[in-house]
Structure to design on (216 residues):
C-alpha cells in the first residue's frame, strides 16, 4: 500500500503555513508526530535532510507526521518571529494533528532550532507524550527551560556535532532530570553527514519503544 501524502496550507497566526502530512505505508496509525525544521534564517526548511529522516523514522514507527515551513519560509506567509512566532506556528501544527488524530498520543520532534522549539512546546502542551530532540545546539546559553520539560526527553546527537560538542552535550544531558535518553550517532557533523541512516534508525528505535510500553 502506498503511503498517504497530503500537501496543504494551514491557517497560522501570521498567515498560511506550507505543510506536508504523511501516514505509514500500512495505514495503521498509533500516534501523531510534529516535526520542526532548523533555523529559518540559516536555510532551514521542512525539506532539510535531517528533518526528512526524522519524519520518516517516526512514520515507520506508526505515526502520522506533520511537518511545515515556519512563517516566511518558501510558501509560508509572514516573516521571522524571533523563535516566539515560530513556536506559535508549531502550536498551529499541533492543533491540526489533534483534529486529524483525536485521542492519539503526540510526539514532538525537531532538529537544531526545531529541537529547541519542540522542547519549549513540551513544557506546557497537554497530551504530548514525549519529545525527540535531534542535534540540540548546546552552544547557545539559553537552555534552562529544558529542565522544566516533564515528559520523556529523547536526544539524538552526532558524535561530531560542532554546535553541540560531545563533551558539552554529555555534561548537559547528565544534568537533566529524568525521564531522559540519549542516542549517539557516529556522524561527521551537526547535520549527521555520512550517517543519516543511523539517525533514522535511532528515531525508529525510539518510536518502537514508545509502542512497546503503551498499554494494550
Amino acid at each position: 500500500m502506498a503511503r498517504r501524502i497530503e500537501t496543504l496550507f494551514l491557517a497560522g497566526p501570521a498567515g498560511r503555513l506550507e505543510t506536508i502530512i504523511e501516514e505509514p505505508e500500512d495505514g495503521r496509525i498509533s500516534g501523531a508526530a510534529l516535526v520542526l525544521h532548523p533555523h529559518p534564517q540559516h536555510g532551514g526548511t521542512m525539506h532539510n535532510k535531517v528533518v526528512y529522516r526524522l519524519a520518516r523514522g517516526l512514520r515507520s514507527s506508526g505515526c502520522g507526521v506533520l511537518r511545515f515551513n515556519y512563517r516566511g519560509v518558501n510558501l509560508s506567509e509572514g516573516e521571522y518571529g524571533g523563535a516566539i512566532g515560530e513556536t506559535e506556528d508549531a502550536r498551529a501544527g499541533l492543533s491540526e494533528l489533534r483534529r486529524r488524530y483525536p485521542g492519539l498520543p503526540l510526539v514532538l520532534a525537531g532538529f537544531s532550532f526545531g529541537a529547541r522549539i519542540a522542547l519549549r512546546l513540551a513544557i506546557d502542551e497537554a497530551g504530548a507524550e514525549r519529545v525527540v530532540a535531534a542535534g540540540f545546539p548546546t552552544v547557545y546559553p539559553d537552555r534552562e527551560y529544558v529542565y522544566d520539560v516533564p515528559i520523556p526527553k529523547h536526544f539524538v546527537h552526532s558524535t561530531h556535532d560542532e554546535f553541540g560538542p560531545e563533551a558539552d552535550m554529555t555534561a548537559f544531558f547528565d544534568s537533566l532530570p529524568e525521564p531522559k535518553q540519549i542516542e549517539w550517532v557516529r556522524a561527521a557533523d551537526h547535520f549527521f553527514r555520512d550517517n543519516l541512516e543511523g539517525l533514522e534508525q535511532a528515531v525508529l528505535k525510539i518510536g518502537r519503544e514508545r509502542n512497546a510500553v503503551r498499554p494494550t
The two ends are 25 Å apart (CA to CA).
